[in-house]
Design a protein that fits this description.
The complex is a heterodimer of chains A (about 210) and B (about 220).
Chain A: H1 28-41, H2 44-49, H3 53-58, H4 61-75, H5 81-92, H6 103-114, E1 132-135, E2 156-166, E3 176-185, H7 186-190, E4 200-206, E5 210-212
Antiparallel strand pairs in A: 1-2, 1-5, 2-3, 3-4
Chain B: H1 4-10, H2 29-43, H3 49-62, H4 65-77, H5 79-87, H6 89-95, E1 106-110, E2 115-120, H7 129-132, H8 142-147, H9 152-157, E3 168-173, E4 179-183, H10 195-201, H11 204-208
Helix pairs in contact in B: 4-5, 4-10, 5-6
Classes of the chains: A alpha+beta (about 210), B mainly alpha (about 220).
Chain lengths: ~210, ~220
């Protein structure tokens, strides 16, 4: 999607380090909301990206997970907006979510969180290390993808072949493509600058995002 | 405000989750919404309370930078492991029992006298959970996501990390499934330390690449 989540190079946000920002979170609900999103959305990133831009920018990190969880739960037909409103009003009146344990579900979370399925290697990928490539210009306002705006149209070089992955945003991942690490020089991305010495940016990009240069 | 613990007991349930905040602050809008959604998803059988508890426990406690530090310390101490780690981060981490969600394709990038690496995710906040746990608030900030790929040296200066212009800065934007870990430079004066002592020196921030590992005694 062409959204405000695509933040590379946007100016005006100020300092990175702020008081308290070394913590991972501050309130109990935050990490719980993240799991609710992972459970209700199936794929959470597209739902986070669908948050309207003013809300996205005005909402905290875990607040966006919560919003995505609500949108995903309704959008996937798990709950209705009316049920959500009803539950909200019961909670507001002081009713706590009842405790409902299910050891099998808890074990499934442990399995998901502690097991790894390494990416398979790419078989005869289109590009080789050292090849020059250019990420395509594109406009896909409604389709989740992972090609940041700031590298589109910029010439880079394949630095590594990462293996094959399901293409981001394709339903049930029936499209599997090689993913490449592409190295871009800062001057090609941002122009010659006097405030920063040249540096390199590496972005991992699916095969179909790239043209040969 | 309402005493939620008492209400919990009235219902005969245990409510470790969403216990009354000690600060006696009213619950935030976000907390109320989270509780409302968790109550519904629990009712519908989409989640269970212990499943949510398990996620929180694993990402907040079982995963974490202590695992990344073990990997780094072993790479410093064992040249063969060092080589395996740079060649295949996923397999080398698994040798130490470090594996899990957001760790299917781990790549370790090495800092040297001539190269300094910095990890970011501009599109969301991808992060190698099994090695570092949940990311710090600053890593998830708009400022870091926006600036790390545009002015990395200026960002590093916020940590007091000054790099000569001759040092090559390499920024890694975690835009697909690869999750990056920086192998910091081993500080001088650590030649006689064992792996556990070395691991104790390694900070989370040095494995993201915003800082170095400080020499012993500094």
């Amino acid at each position: 999607m062409e959204g405000v989540h695509d933040l590379g190079g946007v100016g005006g946000f100020g300092p990175v380090r702020t008081p308290g920002s070394d913590a991972t979170h501050t309130e109990e609900w935050e990490v719980r909301a993240q799991w609710l999103a992972l459970a209700a959305c199936h794929s959470s990133r597209p739902w986070i990206e669908r948050i309207d831009p003013p809300t996205y920018l005005a909402t905290s990190y875990y607040g966006r997970w919560l919003r995505a969880a609500e949108m995903g739960a309704v959008g996937n037909g798990i709950v209705t907006a009316a049920e959500l409103a009803g539950s909200r009003s019961r909670v507001e009146q002081g009713e706590l979510p009842g405790r409902a344990d299910d050891p099998a579900r808890a074990r499934a979370v442990t399995d998901y969180m502690t097991s790894t399925s390494p990416s398979a290697p790419a078989v005869s990928p289109r590009f080789a290390v050292g090849d020059a490539v250019v990420p395509k210009q594109m406009w896909q306002p409604d389709v989740h993808h992972r090609c940041p705006r700031y590298v589109r149209g910029v010439r880079g070089v394949i630095e590594r072949i990462c293996g094959i992955e399901p293409l981001a945003g394709v339903r049930r991942a029936e499209v599997i493509e090689p993913v490449y690490t592409v190295r871009f020089e800062s001057a090609a991305v941002w122009g010659e600058r006097s405030d920063e010495a040249p540096f390199a940016i590496h972005v991992d990009l699916w095969d179909s995002y790239l043209d040969a240069s | 405000m309402t005493d939620h613990n008492d209400r919990g007991h009235e219902h005969g349930d245990e409510h470790e989750h969403y216990a009354t905040p000690k600060s006696r602050r009213p619950r935030s809008e976000f907390e109320l919404r989270t509780m409302a959604l968790e109550a519904l998803l629990t009712e519908k059988g989409i989640v269970s309370t212990d499943a949510v508890d398990t996620f929180v426990e694993i990402i907040e406690h079982r995963m974490g930078p202590h695992h990344g530090a073990r990997v780094v310390a072993k790479a410093w101490a064992d040249p063969e492991y060092h080589e395996r780690l740079l060649a295949d981060g996923t397999a080398a981490a698994a040798e130490l029992g470090v594996a899990g969600a957001e760790g299917d394709n781990i790549r370790v990038v090495e800092n040297t006298a001539d190269v300094h690496n910095l990890v970011v995710c501009t599109l969301c906040s991808c992060y190698p959970w099994p090695l570092l746990g949940a990311p710090p608030i600053w890593y998830k900030s708009f400022a870091f996501r926006a600036r790390a790929v545009a002015e990395p040296r200026a960002v590093l200066r916020e940590w007091g990390t000054e790099l000569d212009d001759t040092v090559e800065v390499r920024v890694w934007d975690s835009s697909a499934e690869v999750r990056y870990l920086v192998l910091p430079e081993r500080p001088v004066g650590t030649e006689n330390l064992g792996e556990d002592e070395l691991a104790a020196l390694v900070t989370r921030d040095s494995m993201i690449g915003v800082s170095r590992v400080s020499p012993v005694g500094s």
